[in-house]
Amino acid sequence: MVSLSILCAVNLLVGGCGHQKKAEEALPILANVPNFELRDELNRSFSPTQLRGKAWVTHFFFTSCPSVCPLLMTKLSNFHHKTQDIQMNYQIVSITVDPETDDPKTLSAYAKTNHYASPNWTFLTGDSSAIRQVAVSAFKQSIGTRKQINANSSQYDILHGTHLVLVDKNSRIRGFFANDNEGFTQLEKALRLLLEN
Question: Is the pTM of this model over 0.90?
Answer without folding.
Answer: no
